[in-house]
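Appendix B. Raw example, untouched.
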Amino acid sequence: MASEGEIFSERRGEAAPNASAAQAAAPPWEQRILQLDGKRYSLRLEHEFWTALETIASRRKLRLNRLVAAIDAQRAAESNLSSALRVYCLAEMERAAGSLVRDRRRPRRRAAQKSLA
């Protein structure tokens, strides 16, 4: 039995070195089993979303299961957890992109104000 917070990874479709071409056409997702607050969840996300979630958790100094639990606690009851995780990743990307846009605009405004003075 898994302890709380344990993560199991099941990479589907990863072909062995001598696999046929049909087996080599791997699906772009990875299935993981996470245990959150005593309940086990089987989640299937694209590799890029798992990577994004791991990066976000690392930057916030959280374990992946704690980040997922926080997202789970905030999601609407009618949405599924996999969808909520994807939406969360996109919202984080938008926030990061927005801060980059704001950072790039600030120096230009200052430069423009100096040239008007």
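End of appendix B.
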